[in-house]
Amino acid sequence: MSGGDNRLVRAVGRLPARVRTKLLVAFVGTGVLVVVVGVLGLRVLGESQDRVARLGTLEQRASAYGKLQSDASHVRLLLAGNVAGDFYRVNQPTPPRPSPREAAARDKAVANAVALIGPATSAVSLGFVPPAQDQRELRAIRAKSERLSSVIRQLIDFETGATPGEGPPRLRTSAEQLASGLNELATVLANRTTAKTEALIAENASSYKSSRNLFIGVAAGAIALALVLGFVLSWSLIGPIKRIDSRLAAIASGDFSEHVDVVNRDELGALAANVNRMNDKLRRLYKELETASRHKSEFLANMSHELRTPLNAIIGFSQVLRERMFGEVNEKQAEYLDDIRSSGNHLLSLINDVLDLSKVEAGQVELEVAPFSLRDALESGVVMVRERATRDGVQVALSADPQVDVVEGDERRIRQVIFNLLSNAVKFTPTGGRVDVASARRDGEVRVSVVDTGPGIAPEDLERVFEEFQQTELGAAQREGTGLGLALSRKLIDLHGGRIWAQSEVGKGSTFVFTLPLESS
Amino acid sequence: MRRVLIGGALGVLAVSLAACGGSSSKSASEQAMQRGADLWSIDQIEKNFHKATSKKDIDLMMRLWASNATFTTKPGQTLTGKQQIRRFWLAAPAFQPDNRWVSDTAAYKIRITVNGDRGTLHFECHYIDSKTRKLGPVTAADQQVARINGSWLITDMVGGSATLTP
């Protein structure tokens, strides 16, 4: 999922702030979202707690008013037993008529019940301070209960004979109507409280739903915003880093053709600008190096021709004269001609080695790698040095491992190395000495060793002999060689991926070894 | 994928905020309108009560009662349920076929209260003999009503007295 080209990502990258500042803002922003969600959650809990408290108050009120209603209903039903009006007469043609004593007992029960109602409306009896909207009903209940008590007392006086007569029917009707009104008022209080309770429960359910949805929505939104923030910020950093990395990889592979496009105005923008500057500088240097290398190649080619041509003439003509092709030469002349030829050959050899070494260092030597017979190359090398060896009384022996024959490499260069090692061995082995050449397979590589019984090499010279123009004291004293043979051999073996080294002790001969990777054998 | 994720998250937020918007409680005008409708509905109980006794329509009468209603008809007797109440009315003089009573009421004496799904209803019944044009029994009804499944019904009634005074 690449966000590097996203407009928002690039806009964040363009913000003129440091990377640390951007990260801090992102973390703080995420923290704020978490706090918002937390605060919202606390608010929801607080509202729920508030509703629970209100519900408790309403339940207390409903219980108190319910008792009041129950008492008023009880009074109403008691009075229904002594009803004066037509209801029971019309529906019961012969309703039972209570005796004065029964009627008085019932009315006394009514009086006792009514006596409880008035005091029950006080805040102390209710157990709470009634709200303002209930005060009217409570006052009316107190007033009606007092009047009803008065009416019932009058009825009792008539029934018990305290007051003579039966008492007017209107008194009983009045008592009924007062009780009816009392019951109605108490029922209103109870119904109102029940309605409020039910409304609060419904509000609670609705609020819970709303709060839950809001909480989920805000939480989901916070998560989404946090993800977007994280995505945008990370890609505003990762995108430029990836582009810079790609450009650096291209530069490493030699491609200086483009600039990295980073719009950031932070540390990454500065880094990208530096990379582009480095790219331009490297491009210029590379061009200069190419030019220099081209010049060097041209120089080597010219020098190779310019130096060899006169030397060939010197060597050739001295050879011709020495062989008396243009007349006799005396002994002294012959000796001088030999010196001329020898010096010419030495100079030619030196020039060849110098030019070869220069080519290798300039990276202009391209190996022509192909399978070839190592055994044949070793035998050929032995043949080339045999004449000198025989002349100097040095034995040369070859013991090639029959399992090691075909190897991969540049045959001409490997023969050059073999000849160099063999000629050094023969050169520095005294008369009666011995040079042994061997090849073997070992640890996935071919190992060729040249062992001589010469004077040996001091430990401090073992690495030095591989340096350019470095020879042992004996080599320098003998004034043979250019001091470049082993340096060139090392470079050629290195090009093949092999190794070359020397093992020796003064007075105990020397062993020169080189290895070649065994691609197929 | 990225756009889907971002769009989905923002959509959830928008829907949630929209869902939580607004309150479930009614406005004052809605509450007043509802109260007016409830008072009218409860008043219809009184009208249909008199219509049923005047026309001797027992089914109309029984439609006014809740299934578990109570009715105090005489000292020490309270009927429970539609079956008992129906039997009472069928035996009551107002529903006898040879009785030509027209049931009337003093409208200004009707008292109705309503709180939520509960209320009270008080009215008088003046039975007039349509043949002799003479006033018969004068009674009263104290009722408790409730809204059950959207309809206002009588849940409790206590028969009472009334006086022919203003």
Roughly how many Å apart are the termini of chain A?
Answer: 50 Å
CATH architectural name of the largest domain in chain A = Up-down Bundle
* Radius of gyration from the alpha-carbon trace of chain B, in angstroms: 24 Å
| Low-pLDDT residue intervals, each spanning 5 or more residues of chain B | 19-24
- The CATH topology annotation of the largest domain in chain A reads as Four Helix Bundle (Hemerythrin (Met), subunit A)
Tell me, what is the CATH class of the largest domain in chain A? Mainly Alpha
Main β-sheet of chain A, in a few words? Answer: 5 strands, mixed
- Helix coverage percent of chain B: 25-40%
Assign an overall shape of chain A: rod-shaped
Number of beta-strand segments of chain B: 7
Helix count from the secondary structure assignment of chain B: 4
CATH-defined fold name of chain B: Nuclear Transport Factor 2, Chain: A
One letter per element, helices H and strands E, the order of chain B comes to: HHHEEHEEEEE
- Total discrete domains of chain A: 3
Give the termini separation of chain B: 82 Å
Query: Strand portion of chain A, in percent?
Result: 5-15%
- Mind telling me the C-alpha Rg of chain A? 61 Å
What layout of secondary structure does this protein have?
The complex is a heterodimer of chains A (521) and B (166).
Chain A: H1 7-14, H2 19-80, H3 87-91, H4 100-117, H5 123-126, H6 132-160, H7 169-252, H8 267-322, H9 331-361, E1 370-373, H10 374-392, E2 395-400, E3 406-409, H11 411-428, E4 434-442, E5 445-452, H12 473-478, H13 485-495, E6 500-504, E7 510-517
Helix pairs in contact in A: 1-7, 2-4, 2-7, 4-6, 6-7, 7-8, 8-9, 9-13, 10-11, 11-13
Chain B: H1 2-20, H2 28-55, H3 58-62, E1 65-74, E2 77-80, H4 82-91, E3 101-104, E4 111-115, E5 118-129, E6 134-148, E7 151-161
Parallel strand pairs in B: 1-7
Antiparallel strand pairs in B: 1-2, 3-5, 4-5, 5-6, 6-7
